[in-house]
C-alpha cells in the first residue's frame, strides 16, 4: 500500500529530514584520511541525538541477519551499500565513501546518502561521483504527479547507461515515512510509463547506486560490493511529490 501523507505528516518528515541534511553537510568537515568509519558513526549518532532524533538504521532487522549495528552505513570504494562501521576501517587518501543515513523523529523517517571524497581522488572517481549525482537529479525531476515510478527508473538508468556506467543489480529506492521502507519500490532502471502512478503527498527515497565496471553485485551479510571490485557511488534524497516540482526534504535550511 502506498501512503499519501497529510500536511501534518509532511511537516514531521521535514523535521526528521532536515536533521539528515544538516548531518550530511557536517560530515564534509570530518571525513579525511586517517579517520575510522566507527568514528564517523559515533559523530553521526551524537549529532542525531543532539537534535532529538534517533538513527533509523541502528537495530534495523531483516530476516536471516543480525540487527544492523551502526547508526550509518559506511561503504568504501567497491562497497555499494550497507557497509558496517568499524574501528578497523580507516579511510585512506584517494578513497571514496558512501554514507547512508536514516533518522526517525516523532514517528517519521527520512533517508539520504552522499558519497564523499577522502582527500584528493582520481579523475575516474570524480567522474563517477558526478554521474551518480546527476542521475539522482534526473530521477528526482521525473517525480511529478501523473508520471509513474518507471519514469523515475528510466530517467536514472538511461542516463547511467548513456554515460557508460552500470546500475547495481536489485538495489532500489523506496517509499519512506512512518516506516523506513514503504511502497513503492523504485528501481534504478526500467521502462517509462510503467508502475504505480505518482501523486502529490507521496514521499520517496530515490537512490541511484552506480558502478564503474559491472552491474553485478556480491552480497556478504549486510554488505554489498561490486563483483569486479570497481568503484561504486551512492547518492540519495527523500523527496515529496507535490502539485508542481518535487521538493527535496533531506537538505539543511
From TrEMBL:
Natural source organism: Cloacimonas acidaminovorans (strain Evry)
Residues annotated as binding a divalent metal cation 2: 111, 174, 207, 236
Pfam families: Peptidase_M24
Essential cofactor(s): Co(2+); Zn(2+); Mn(2+); Fe(2+)
Gene3D superfamilies: Creatinase/methionine aminopeptidase superfamily (3.90.230.10)
Record InterPro entries: Creatinase/aminopeptidase-like (IPR036005), Pept_M24 (IPR000994), Pept_M24_MAP (IPR001714), Pept_M24A_MAP1 (IPR002467)
Residues annotated as domain Peptidase M24: 11-243
Cofactor note: Binds 2 divalent metal cations per subunit. Has a high-affinity and a low affinity metal-binding site. The true nature of the physiological cofactor is under debate. The enzyme is active with cobalt, zinc, manganese or divalent iron ions. Most likely, methionine aminopeptidases function as mononuclear Fe(2+)-metalloproteases under physiological conditions, and the catalytically relevant metal-binding site has been assigned to the histidine-containing high-affinity site.
Catalysis performed (reactions): Release of N-terminal amino acids, preferentially methionine, from peptides and arylamides
Higher taxonomy: Bacteria, Pseudomonadati, Candidatus Cloacimonadota, Candidatus Cloacimonadia, Candidatus Cloacimonadales
Name of the protein: Methionine aminopeptidase
Keyword Electron transport: no
Keywords linked to the UniProt accession: Aminopeptidase, Hydrolase, Metal-binding, Protease
Amino acid at each position: 500500500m502506498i501512503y499519501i501523507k497529510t500536511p501534518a505528516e509532511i511537516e514531521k518528515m521535514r523535521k526528521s529530514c532536515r536533521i539528515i541534511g544538516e548531518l550530511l553537510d557536517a560530515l564534509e568537515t570530518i571525513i579525511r584520511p586517517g579517520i575510522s568509519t566507527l568514528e564517523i558513526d559515533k559523530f553521526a549518532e551524537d549529532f542525531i541525538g543532539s537534535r532529538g532524533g534517533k538513527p533509523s538504521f541502528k537495530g534495523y532487522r531483516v530476516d536471516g541477519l543480525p540487527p544492523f549495528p551502526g547508526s550509518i552505513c559506511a561503504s568504501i570504494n567497491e562497497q555499494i551499500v550497507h557497509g558496517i562501521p568499524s574501528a578497523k576501517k580507516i579511510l585512506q587518501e584517494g578513497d571514496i565513501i558512501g554514507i547512508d543515513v536514516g533518522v526517525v523523529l516523532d514517528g517519521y523517517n527520512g533517508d539520504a546518502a552522499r558519497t564523499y571524497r577522502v582527500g584528493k581522488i582520481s579523475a575516474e572517481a570524480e567522474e563517477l561521483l558526478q554521474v551518480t549525482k546527476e542521475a539522482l537529479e534526473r530521477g528526482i525531476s521525473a517525480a511529478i504527479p501523473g508520471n509513474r515510478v518507471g519514469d523515475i527508473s528510466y530517467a536514472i538508468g538511461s542516463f547511467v547507461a548513456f554515460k557508460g556506467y552500470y546500475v547495481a543489480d536489485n538495489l532500489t529506492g523506496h517509499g519512506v515515512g512512518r516506516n523506513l521502507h514503504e511502497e513503492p519500490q523504485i528501481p534504478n532502471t526500467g521502462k517509462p510509463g510503467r508502475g504505480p502512478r505518482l501523486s502529490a503527498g507521496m514521499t520517496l527515497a530515490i537512490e541511484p547506486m552506480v558502478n564503474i565496471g559491472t552491474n553485478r553485485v556480491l552480497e556478504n551479510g549486510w554488505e554489498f560490493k561490486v563483483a569486479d571490485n570497481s568503484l561504486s557511488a551512492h547518492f540519495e534524497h527523500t523527496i515529496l511529490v507535490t502539485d508542481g516540482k518535487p521538493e527535496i526534504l533531506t537538505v539543511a535550511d
